[in-house]
Amino acid sequence: xxxxxxxxxxxxxxxxxxxxxxxxxxxxxxxxxxxxxxxxxxxxxxxxxxxxxxxxxxxxxxxxxxxxxxxxxxxxxxxxxxxxxxxxxxxxxxxxxxxxxxxxxxxxxxxxxxxxxxxxxxxxxxxxxxxxxxxxxxxxxxxxxxxxxxxxxxxxxxxxxxxxxxxxxxxxxxxxxxxxxxxxxxxxxxxxxxxxxxxxxxxxxxxxxxxxxxxxxxxxxxxxxxxxxxxxxxxxxxxxxxxxxxxxxxxxxxxxxxxxxxxxxxxxxxxxxxxxxxxxxxxxxxxx
Amino acid sequence: xxxxxxxxxxxxxxxxxxxxxxxxxxxxxxxxxxxxxxxxxxxxxxxxxxxxxxxxxxxxxxxxxxxxxxxxxxxxxxxxxxxxxxxxxxxxxxxxxxxxxxxxxxxxxxxxxxxxxxxxxxxxxxxxxxxxxxxxxxxxxxxxxxxxxxxxxxxxxxxxxxxxxxxxxxxxxxxxxxxxxxxxxxxxxxxxxxxxxxxxxxxxxxxxxxxxxxxxxxxxxxxxxxxxxxxxxxxxxxxxxxxxxxxxxxxxxxxxxxxxxxxxxxxxxxxxxxxxxxxxxxxxxxxxxxxxxxxxxxxxxxxxxxxxxxxxxxxxxxxxxxxxxxxxxxxxxxxxxxxxxxxx
Amino acid sequence: xxxxxxxxxxxxxxxxxxxxxxxxxxxxxxxxxxxxxxxxxxxxxxxxxxxxxxxxxxxxxxxxxxxxxxxxxxxxxxxxxxxxxxxxxxxxxxxxxxxxxxxxxxxxxxxxxxxxxxxxxxxxxxxxxxxxxxxxxxxxxxxxxxxxxxxxxxxxxxxxxxxxxxxxxxxxxxxxxxxxxxxxxxxxxxxxxxxxxxxxxxxxxxxxxxxxxxxxxxxxxxxxxxxxxxxxxxxxxxxxxxxxxxxxxxxxxxxxxxxxxxxxxxxxxxxxxxxxxxxxxxxxxxxxxxxxxxxxxxxxxxxxxxxxxxxxxxxxxxxxxxxxxxxxxxxxxxx
Lengths: 288, 344, 335
Known about the structure:
- The complex is a heterotrimer of chains A (288), B (344) and C (335).
- Chain A is mostly helical and 288 residues long.
- Chain A has one domain: Orthogonal Bundle (MetI-like fold), CATH 1.10.3720.10.
- Chain A has helices spanning 4-12, 15-32, 34-37, 71-106, 110-124, 127-138, 142-169, 172-179, 184-220, 232-239, 247-275, 277-280.
- In chain A, helix 4 packs parallel to helix 11 (247-275), helix 9 (184-220) runs parallel beside helix 10 and helix 10 (232-239) runs antiparallel to helix 11.
- Chain A starts with a helix and ends in an 8-residue tail after the last helix.
- In chain A, 48% of the residues are buried.
- Chain B has an eight-stranded mixed β-sheet with strand order 6-7-8-3-9-10-12-11, with helices on both faces.
- The radius of gyration of chain B is 21 Å and the shape is globular.
- The two termini of chain B are 41 Å apart.
- Chain C is mainly alpha-helical and 335 residues long.
- Helix content of chain C is 78%, strand content 0%.
- Chain C has helices at residues 2-31, 36-41, 47-57, 63-75, 89-124, 129-141, 146-160, 182-188, 192-229, 232-239, 244-282, 287-296, 300-328, 330-334.
- Chains in contact: A-B, A-C, B-C.
């Protein structure tokens, strides 16, 4: 099991992972300090129709949208929505998927098979499609988006945990510990969990990027939190009819999504390289 | 010079996680025409590196050739134009038998594909001329037929049953021993002057090893082909070599004709090596100490920390080559003149 | 024969997975909403109308019975009727299918024909400026929201530069319908102006759809080739002096491809998921826009029909990929 310090030092050497970390940090800071960083924090709720669709200026760094609201400020508050959706959706998926994977991996029998079949069904369909169906049924709102995303992402965690648990069972140390009389609980908590932590962390990071993209797509399609919530995907949808003139209106939130997702992807890749180097390191041939 | 292959002062470094390893430290090695030379040494002594350096297929990113010459038929392979070496030397004048029979065929093609590709580019009937052959050049029907005949004949010579059917099989359908026979066939087909075999039997069952080795020896002696083969197993060397060269930690220690080597080895390391072979009386005589790190190797003769004859001059610089007899050279300040077995 | 047995074995998983999908969609459509009938009836229906509809649709019967009827109807190809178009949903989907297929196939072709060679090159020129540059592109490819990319492409190429049309599949009359695919039909009838026009219309949506797929393919091919580069047979072929181009493009690529073939299934998933939003952006008359419009109009059955359809296709494609994998990797055939 790798210590946190070891992971951090190795990660520090990977420039693109560091860049990813910087991007994520920027996102977090933006979300936390949105009220302070925003030039027009009240624009999340207030409307100024007289000032609609103005280009970038000193007063409005990224221009105004169709309601006259400051694009920049709404963008910053949109970061809050994005993080909220991402963290809760991935967190919930993790909390459902990991136990399912553990149980399915630990036991062998009909329960195990059934659990994996169920997750296979969810994996059989592109996440977006199922999420659309669920969100449409429940109605557009923030909690519903999160629910739809969690309900469609948990199988990824379940599958990873299942595979790792099964692989670990074949490891000698697990067999011998069990033979020494350790209870299943003890075995799981003390021995299995630390070993599956790495793939889970990697999957969580990559999952964040994935989930945020899907959330934005849902928002774009109108299935996300309704106005006036400044969700990035919905903002892009709103902006379309005003193109090509109000280009800033569409470009800014898209760039925000891009940088956010890229941050999580780069970090996830970097974590994968550090935590599972046998997959990636090109072997220098061992010569005699 | 009379030697077919003459390596002089070859120095190779490897870049590793732990630093720069000096894997080869000024190696000298000769192979005469029609001679079977065994390169013996423990794992990590650099014999595979030497083999690959001669062939010119060291890993480009990690390995650095620091100096030395590899003379082959009058030309220094390290200084010739790369494309010319690739076309005229590799796979033609010098061929290769790898250590790993399990991975040396591409698993997705029948063995015929790889064998006929070797023939297409390297058969004696293939034209030598362009330094950069086009990969999409045609394979003339006539030549293909002639080459295929040669392949079938050679497969019979290496005792592959039903050669025509065998050619259509996938690599995993053959046993390890059969795959090495195919490798031997492919090494012989271009009618080379020299075959470099890197631990060709290490991955095989002990029962088959002797068979394969004897087959190889018979075939090369028939054709007058030289062989340089590496091994960590003295038994293998004894089986088929005319001459044996011993390596330790990137330095060659002794080179002698086989009988002299096994009867009256001169170098302390050689003697220890021979003595450490488990004998019927049951005693196992280890060599005390450990193989040194190549990142920070001992100075001078790299065996001196473990050698009971070592003196100050042994660490001062590498001992020069001392000729004890024609073709029996040793690099040691204190060679031993006694039959093997007379160890303390 | 072995191959048949293997195919049947893979096929065996098809049915339970499909059934599972149907259970999921059934649950979403009947169990999840507070009152599914009210959803279908719409906001303006009176309670009496809702009750009547409930009985008519059979939603007052026990759930397991409903499920069996649901599956039975699907098996007949009856996905219900669209509230908006008033036509059977299955018919609507079939009508719009060729457009989506044409777009997806073109996108797939582009990503495969461009992505695989790029992946090979970036592996053999590892860490070169080319490799690093391509890395930036592939990382972006997986971080860009497709719908945003589509909009940006429209902004640049259609609105500002005017090089391509803004949206839609074709302006004017389509070529005589033989296959339903405009490109093929135009080519077959020699209608080259239409062919050109259709191609221009395809350009932006296909590029948008292909981008993430291309990024994935480049990555996987690169990893596959890097892996193969370490193999013993590559070393052997180098030692025997085979021309580099032969080693790379005949042997290494072939080995790397065995793993890439399985990625085609993954790719298809990406393409399908992307098709929904991409079609919405470009007003492409395919199944994706149908789904999106149905969402906007609360045409609830239509969305469900789309989900079932998309899920089934995806399962089928994965099945085909599994079978293809056994064909492509000869080791699987004879063990």
